Amino acid sequence: MEFNKKIYGGHHGARKFWREMLPRIKFRNPAIPIEISRHEQAEGPSLLHIYTTAFPPDTSTNPATKAPTPPSSTPNAQNTLTPDTAKPEHTIDIRSMSELTILEQLIAKTGAEVIEMTPEEQEEWEEVQKFKETSERDRQTVRDKLMRERHEQELMRIARGDAA
C-alpha cells in the first residue's frame, strides 16, 4: 500500500484505511505480510497492491517440505515475502476513496471471507460504544461548566470596571 503522509490530494481514505481497517485485517490474518509506503507528494500515487502469489506453494501435507511461517509483522521491506520484482496480481487506485470502499474493493479482488463478530466481541463492542457516548456527554458537561465559569468571570470583571 502506498499513499501520502498527509490527507491532502485524495489520500484521506487511504490513511483512514491504514489506521482503522488494516490493524483489524492484520489481527485476523497475522501471517499475511503487509508493507506500507508513505511519501511526501500530495500528487503522488495512492495505490493498494495485492500480491496473491507471494507465499510458497502449500506444503502442509508433507511436513518435510513445509515452508517457514511468514513473519507476523513487517518491520522493513526485507522481511516481507513479496519479492521486489514480482508484479502485483491486483492494483487498486484508492485515491479519493473512503476506507469502506477500499475495504469492499479489497474483499472483491481477493475473494476474502468476512468474519462476523462473536457474541463476546459484540458485547465488548457495545460496551465501548456506550463508553464513547458517556465520554462525549461528560465532555459536553465539562465544556458547558467551563464556559459558564468564564462568562461569570467576564461579567464580574466588567462589573468591577476592569474591562478594556
Protein architecture, described:
This protein has 164 residues and is mostly helical. It has 2 domains: 2-110, no CATH class; 116-164. It has helices at residues 12-28, 99-110, 119-160, and strands spanning 2-4, 37-39, 47-50, 90-93. The strands form 2 sheets. Strands 1-2 form a two-stranded parallel sheet. Strands 3-4 form a two-stranded antiparallel sheet. Helix 1 (12-28) links the parallel strand 1 (2-4) and strand 2 (37-39). The longest helix has 42 residues, at 119-160. The chain starts with a strand and ends with a helix.
Keywords:
single chain, 164 residues, mainly alpha, 2 domains, two-stranded parallel ribbon, two-stranded antiparallel ribbon, 3 helices, elongated
Q: Cα distance, first to last residue?
A: 56 Å
Residue share in helix: 40-55%
Unreliable residue runs? 56-83
Following the backbone from N to C, one meets helices and strands in this order, namely: EHEEEHH
Number of domains: 2
Arithmetic mean of pLDDT = 82
What is the gyration radius calculated from CA atoms?
A: 24 Å
| Shape call | elongated
- Extended strand count: 4
Secondary structure category? mainly alpha
SS field, number of helical segments:
3
Q: Which strand-content bin applies to the residues?
A: 5-15%
- Spatial arrangement of strands, main beta sheet: 1-2
How would a crystallographer describe the biggest sheet? 2 strands, parallel
Task: Give the helices and strands, then pairings.
Elements: E1 2-4, H1 12-28, E2 37-39, E3 47-50, E4 90-93, H2 99-110, H3 119-160
Parallel strand pairs: 1-2
Antiparallel strand pairs: 3-4
Helix pairs in contact: 1-2
